Amino acid sequence: xxxxxxxxxxxxxxxGIHIPNIVSPITGExxxxxSLGYVPPSTEENQRRFRGWWxxxxxxxxxxxxxxxxxxxxxxxxxxNSTIGIQENIGTSLDFVKDWGEGxxxxxxxxxxxxxxxxxxxxxxxxxxxxxxxxxxxxGDSLKVTVLRNSEFWSESKLYVTVVWIMAIGGAILIWxxxxxxxxxxxxxTGGFFVMAFYSTLLNFLNRRHLPEFAKLKGxxxxxxxxxxxxxxxxxxxxxxxxxxxxxxxxxL
Length: 253
Prior knowledge:
single chain, mainly alpha, globular
């Protein structure tokens, strides 16, 4: 959601036209000012607009995140189980993906096996490009409005490019080390859980502390955010426990 807000800002939509955005540090005109927003006054008109936006946001999340997300997950699970069933190597390696492609080729047509792997490559590549983009956007925005707020050199665009290249080079180095993909997935998932736990806690805190009364989380939503943070932090604590008790060997390192 934060990345989408930055994207809308960069396209100059709505109030985004008044806020410094990310541009190419080579061909674009950079603005070193931080992209700070403001808290709207608690007027009846603003409350009406917020309630309208909140209604649309809830409907959109219910449809895309819950309904479509659950539908796709169930469909993929059913497809895998009906094609190759439950195999011993699931959870220990990614060889089951190869078995899945071969199974689809046998059931549908030989050409579908190649199509499956090409489609998987395109999907994973686009996903990783998107991840690098939104991590660069969020990191650049966070640094510019905090520690580099007064810097005349570090614009948000330069921070964005720097973060993206650090991720690209760092990812290449990790691949060259020969680590198994399943190990990288475990590490990435654990880090993702920790980030989501921190994000949920921070979001709840900022919402309750700094937003106008009409925009604050009310009723069951705030306690749910606490439960969500606990849900995300537990796997991180478990992995930390494994590292302390078993060392890197717990992850095949």
